[in-house]
Amino acid sequence: MRVDLLTREYPPHVYGGAGVHVAELSAVLRRHADVRVRCFDGPRDAEGVTGYDVPAELAGANPALATLGVDLQIAQDCAGADLVHSHTWYANMAGHLAGLLHDVPHVISAHSLEPLRPWKAEQLGGGYALSSWAEKTAYEGAARIIAVSAGMREDILRSYPSLDPDDVVVVHNGIDLSGWRRPEGEEDVAAARASALARGLDPDRPSVVFVGRITRQKGLPYLLRAAERLPADVQLVLCAGAPDTPEIMAEVTGLVADLRRKREGVVWIEEMLPRRELVSVLSSATVFACPSVYEPLGIVNLEAMACGLPVVGTATGGIPEVVDDGVTGVLVPIEQVTDGTGTPVHPETFVTDLADALSAVATDPDRAARMGAAARRRVEDHFAWEAIGERTLEVYRSVLG
Length: 401
Fold this sequence. Notes:
It is a single chain. The protein has 15 helices and 13 strands. The chain has helices at 17-29, 63-77, 88-102, 120-124, 127-141, 150-159, 186-198, 220-227, 246-262, 275-284, 299-306, 319-322, 347-362, 365-382, 385-400, and strands spanning 2-7, 34-39, 49-51, 83-87, 106-110, 144-147, 168-170, 207-213, 235-241, 266-269, 287-290, 311-314, 329-332. Strands 3-2-1-4-5-6-7 form a 7-stranded parallel beta sheet, with helices on both faces. It is globular.
């Protein structure tokens, strides 16, 4: 069986969870099938991976239009595949066109949904209408859609009511358990401590850590407001970059500056850290914060839990399927508006509840350690990539008959 995986992101150009997902999934699937990866951001050296540039004629065009130019090239090159599997709207149209052109099934993995990210109109202008059209067309023509959580499945069926519910199945994201774990051994622990110190984090003080892109859906402004209420000795560590728009970057920059005027211990790391360094930061922290207002699952939560951190996360999307409330972390309740933005109906209440939950875990090291150990066990039991790969193969087999 030959499977062509179609994705915008693939190493070394990874910007979010979908890129991590495809990299790990392809490694597992290659043990069972002929897997070809087709991705954006130019040529790759890795065997079985083909990268594509935006056509010269579309250089400088609206990003959504440029994306469709890449999709056309990918669709052409899928000749010979038994099945195509696309990830995110960027590659969905490539999968849809490849399926039609080559008469093969198209499977989609849903990592996010355009109708639930209306703020992208700020970023893409009229391109948001194009991305929404591309996603809708691909979803309605797909042979099967894989949702990364039950919450995501509900969102898909609500956003695209013409879909047959039997064609939308749940296969969770996975985690590389060997690559994400606390350092062991005196030498590795010392190296991790030194790495954290070099980044401005004091491992001897309690700390809250956030990892994610600066987007509306990640809820970073709510965390920054909540951080004003954290105990004085609790550090806030932000591994946050790649802003969607200059406007949200300006908002976050202003909130960080304001927070630093009010308290010390605010560390902002703007570049994307290599895994080894990020593991050092996570392993030196006390609790992980996930203040997202939209999160289909949240690979960052799995990464933190694999490193033995409890997660304080919003009770929205797929987060409750990852975080066992009171056991591996704390779920923060939220009532959200229904216009697709995920905005809290009562933002001050959400900020207060978030601050209270983070403070309670960060100031109780024994409880945090128990939750962190339980978090590691949970990802080992439910989110190992080998099991995720087998479930994905079962989807392929069902589609191919």
